[in-house]
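look at this one:
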Amino acid sequence: MSLRSLPTLLHQDPTLTGLAGSRNAVLAVAEPARAYVIAGLATLSGRHPLVVAVATVADADRLVHDLSAFLGPDQVDSFPAWETLPFERVSPSVETMGRRLRTMWRLRQGGDAAPRVLVAPVRALLQRLGPHVEDVEPVVVRPGDQIDPSDLVARLTAIGYRREYQVEHRGELAVRGSIVDVFPSTADAPIRIDLWGDEVDRLTEFSVADQRSTDDLEEVQLFGCRELLPTDEVRARANQLVGREPWGREQWERLAEGLTFDGMESWLPWMAEDEHLLADLIGPDAQVLLVEPRRMRDRAAEVLDEEGALADTLAQTWGARTSAASGEEPFPRLHLPFDRLLAHTRAPAWSVTAAAEGPNTATLLASGWDPVVGDGDRLVKQLAELAADGFRVVVCADGKGTGARMAGALRDAGLAAPFDETGDLSGDDLLK
């Protein structure tokens, strides 16, 4: 028994079942119980995926961590925001861009490929996507595949991988004879492709420290390392900007020549003609949850204000013509207004608040818990009181020994909690 069995208990909760089929609902639930309730919604609802929007990056990281305990890490994904500031001539980390590309690919694939729950901060959701970046496909390699080594290297360098003598960091690749080493943008360890002629003879992970192969792999998906690629469309737009925006001639010429360089993503607003957001990729069968939408709106306003102030300052530094200086159009923005977030999304959107906003707000009751440290009798007393009040008691221990001791103490206190020797559940109570 693990925490992953708990969300199914909410299938009997009348508050959640009463919201089934609603397109615009408001659900009030206390913050400590939020992950559990969202996990319950993910298992209860037939909509897929469940896209959870939160106010900050810290909120997203915490929620992903908690949801993984209830649903499993494979069922929960996140869409991170860039660590860099708008117009900053530094590229986001390779891992961040790779994870974003993988998430967009999973959403477009749908079905089992899509995550059950996707969590994203509002900054990431309001950031414009690169031109046609949602159409990017990963390079897939399996043992037995027929691969031209030169073509493989060309495909990887085209999506942002750098060729090095030895692979040590994400986004690098190296070729030594019939061996191609790659550190995927979304992986924690590099992979080694052993070729016998044009056939993949072996596919393994390897250690950066000693460069030795470790675990065999059945498949690897190599996602790109950049969200802005020098496609024909990008090169054409950059070429037009050379004469129209001479203040950025050096950057436009490098992009027009098809070069890749650090900080090229900072020019994405000029290269993206369409205003695509991640929410535009969400299908009608998905479900959107806006967690504390007022906080989200305030945070979105802060992001836009920060970007606007930075644009005005840089316009003077770069000698660019903007509306503030000459009445012309300002810099194109990397982030769009909050009202644009769900404008092109047909999926139903619910709001999740910490407290009821009115008498008609659906509220899922969750009570606080007094911390118990080193006082087993007090813990047993609190659990027995909850059971006496009609609550279903769920106790998750860190091992069988602890679970057995808790079971004995609860029985001595008069709380019946049947379970078998393996710790599997039986009866109406849940205990380990």
User: Anything to note?
Assistant: The chain has a mean pLDDT of 86.
